[in-house]
Amino acid sequence: MGTYGKRQIGFETLMAAMLVAVLAVSGLAWSMAEAAAEKADAGKTVVQTDFQRLEGKWVRPDGGYILELKSIKKDGSIIAAYYNPRPVRVFRAEIAKKDGAITLFVELRDVNYPGSIYNLQYDAATDRLKGTYFQAVERQTFSVEFVRAR
């Protein structure tokens, strides 16, 4: 019985050691996978953070028109709302990065807005959206800018 007892204790000790080793290797693999995922996300965060800086309400000082930007995604999709002072239907809105600059395209389709278009670029130095507005009814293009609403 003495030999059997020693073998049994040895076997249990060996099994426990193997279990600890498997758990340690699994933990290390999980940690490495976490670190790789964080590193991959860090690269994505730069673009996403750049775009997300535009989230919020923007006011056009020359008329009080409001452009609200929210739910900006890294793929360029965005939820935009436009007010003059009542809501005007935003047909399409997209945000992109072109030549290092953040650009915003907003197309309005509503009564008195049959395809009016904003093409804007974010100026980080002044925290403004600057660009052009195509007024579809008059078929004219104007230089415009939006400042962040406070």
| CATH class assignment of the largest domain | Mainly Beta
Instruction: Measure the end-to-end span.
Output: 84 Å
Widest β-sheet, arrangement of strands: 4-3-2-1-9-8-7-6-5
Roughly how many Å is the radius of gyration? 29 Å
Secondary structure tally: strands:
9
Number of DSSP helical runs: 1
Helix-strand topology string: HEEEEEEEEE
Percent range for β-strand residues: 35-45%
CATH architecture of the largest domain: Beta Barrel
Q: Tell me which oligomeric state these chains represent.
A: single chain
How is this structure best summarized?
This protein is α+β, with helices and mostly antiparallel strands. It is built from one helix and nine strands, in the order αβββββββββ. Strands 4-3-2-1-9-8-7-6-5 form a nine-stranded antiparallel beta sheet, covered by helices on one side.
How are the SSEs placed, and which strands pair?
Elements: H1 2-52, E1 56-60, E2 65-70, E3 79-83, E4 87-88, E5 90-98, E6 101-110, E7 113-123, E8 128-135, E9 140-148
Antiparallel strand pairs: 1-2, 1-9, 2-3, 3-4, 5-6, 6-7, 7-8, 8-9
